């Protein structure tokens, strides 16, 4: 049976951990969906793992829509959530409504994700939710703010910054967000937020006390050239693919492939 927002809320109430992974094309989406994840996130991390950018900032709404369409075609059970990219929602609620509406109408995703929890953004989330667009929040390390943050550093380590993140999470829940990603914050802070909220928290580098966990699938599979400190390597596909290509190349050059009749 397909995963819904209501089922995710039930997971939190029942203490069943939520599993989320990213996808950027049909084949990968189909595999991780059939493996049984709850959420498939078309994250703007695809800017780095699929498009070769140094940060998530350059990816456009059109590019996100292109990849989200492919992912949606591969998913049958999981809830598909798509990131709104940098500068596609920050200018005004109307801009956000237009971008999010395209994600649901054209790509077929079930929800969108926005970064940050400042007051103006909470108002935008409220506007989207009132229009019928489900929204997942994202606080802590927000990669779209990497220039302002001075890199991908852990957030919420000081009392003031921790309190700010707590306030943002509470504001996003009040605005109607159905879940919130907590990225790269101390585990005790993530636990505080998880206990305060009635909606699920999805951690990434935020310790074991969140209601669920998400990773960039390229990191999990060992496809990334660089691993974040909080990721765990479950496979070494970059190495495996390299060896397979080298073997194929050698066999072609030595006239061993294709085999003769």
Task: Please describe what this structure looks like.
The protein has 261 residues and is α/β, with parallel strands linked by helices. The chain has a single domain, classed as Phosphoenolpyruvate-binding domains (TIM Barrel), CATH 3.20.20. The chain has 11 helices and 8 strands. It has an 8-stranded parallel β-barrel, surrounded by 7 helices. α5 packs across α6. The longest helix has 17 residues, at 159-175. The mean pLDDT is 97.
SSE map:
Blueprint: H1 5-14, E1 18-22, H2 26-34, E2 39-42, H3 46-49, H4 61-74, E3 79-83, H5 93-107, E4 111-113, H6 119-131, E5 135-140, H7 146-149, H8 159-175, E6 179-183, H9 187-196, E7 201-204, E8 212-215, H10 217-220, H11 237-253
Parallel strand pairs: 1-2, 1-8, 2-3, 3-4, 4-5, 5-6, 6-7, 7-8
List keywords for this structure.
14% strand, alpha/beta, 45% helix, 261 residues, TIM Barrel, 8-stranded parallel barrel
Encode the helix/strand succession as letters.
Answer: HEHEHHEHEHEHHEHEEHH
Helix run count: 11
Q: What is the fold named in CATH at topology level?
A: TIM Barrel
Supply Rg.
19 Å
Strands of the biggest beta sheet: in what spatial order?
Answer: 1-2-3-4-5-6-7-8
The CATH H-level superfamily is Phosphoenolpyruvate-binding domains
Q: What's the β-strand tally?
A: 8
What is the CATH architecture assignment?
Alpha-Beta Barrel
Proportion of strand residues: 5-15%
Q: What is the percent of helical residues?
A: 40-55%
Distance between the termini: 49 Å
What's the number of structural domains? 1
Overall pLDDT metric: 97
